[in-house]
Structure formats: C-alpha cells, structure tokens
Amino acid sequence: MTRIELRDLRDDDRDAAYAALRASASTWPRGEVADRAAFDAWVDADRVTARAIVDEDTVVGLAATLDVDGDREALLAVSPETTRESATEALRLLTLAEPERPLYACVAADDDPSHDTLARLGFVEHGRDGADIVYVLPPTLE
C-alpha cells in the first residue's frame, strides 16, 4: 500500500505537479493553464493554496483550494498512473486541511470515478456549471 501525503508546493515540486495537472483526466476549467508560466502564476496567486500530492517521496499530483466568486473550491489533479485509492486519500487529506465550509468541487459529467470519490467523502451534488457537475461538502453540525 502506498503512503499519500500533502505538502506545501515547493519549487522543486512544480515540474511534476504541472505535468500531473496537464495529464489529469480530473482537471476542470478553473485549473486549466496554457503553459508552465501560467501554471506558476496560477499557483502563486493569493486566492490559491497549492499542495503537492506525494506518494512514497514522488510528486504524483496537485491538490489545491481556491477562492471563486466568494466560494472555496477544491481541485485535485493526479497523474494517470496514480491509483484510485491514492487519489481518494489525497482528496480526503485536502478536505481535512481546508477548514472552510461549504467546500465546492466541479467535475466533468462523464468522470464517473470522480463522482464516486466525492460522494464517498460526503460531497453532494449541488448543480451544474455548463457540462460540469458542481458538488458541495456542506458544513457539519457539531
């Protein structure tokens, strides 16, 4: 079994995180970047909190939260070789690291594995954004 962790995105993580973002089937429009310079500007923006997804000392993806129109949204992009269980664990860790609720996520309507993962972690369907489905992780009652 692999050991997934999230860490603040370091300069030496950026090449692998960028490659994962470009190759990921789970990316969505707010995470699309035209080139490496645009990626660097995106992760350095004040509204973005970017973390490297690390599997056994190897960066396999990017987990980020960002402000969009006053809401906090989550983005997860993993390399195609990353297992579904590892991606689920990365998203679970991201939801633990991000205290703001509600927390939103947006995925392509035909991305069934992502829909299953979000539901397993407590996200519920909130609406549509074009061809994408928006999910929300609502606040919990204490």
Care to describe what's here?
The chain is an alpha+beta fold. The chain has helices at residues 14-23, 36-44, 84-97, 112-120, and strands at residues 4-8, 48-55, 58-68, 71-78, 103-108, 124-129, 132-137. The protein has a 7-stranded mixed beta sheet with strand order 1-2-3-4-5-7-6, with helices on both faces. A hairpin with a 2-residue loop joins strand 3 and strand 4 (71-78). It is globular. The termini are far apart.
Task: Map the helices and strands.
Layout: E1 4-8, H1 14-23, H2 36-44, E2 48-55, E3 58-68, E4 71-78, H3 84-97, E5 103-108, H4 112-120, E6 124-129, E7 132-137
Parallel strand pairs: 4-5
Antiparallel strand pairs: 1-2, 2-3, 3-4, 5-7, 6-7
Helical element count? 4
The helix/strand class is: alpha+beta
Please bin the fraction of helical residues: 25-40%
Could you give the order of strands across the largest sheet? Answer: 1-2-3-4-5-7-6
The whole-angstrom Rg is 14 Å
Coarse shape: globular
Number of strands: 7
First CA to last CA: what distance?
33 Å
Q: What share of residues are in beta strands?
A: 35-45%
Average pLDDT works out at 90
Order of helices and strands: EHHEEEHEHEE
